[in-house]
Amino acid sequence: MTFPFDELNMRDHEHVGWVKSQRDPELWHVAAIAVLNYLGDPRGFLVWLMDQPETDRATAGYIFFGAYGSAYLRGQTDFGGEGLSDQEWLDAMKAICRRASSLGFTNDSLGLHPGFEATRQACLDLINRGQVADGIAVPHALLDAPFPPEQKCQYFVEDGAVLDYDPGP
Question: According to the model, what pLDDT value does residue 55 have?
Answer without folding.
Answer: 97
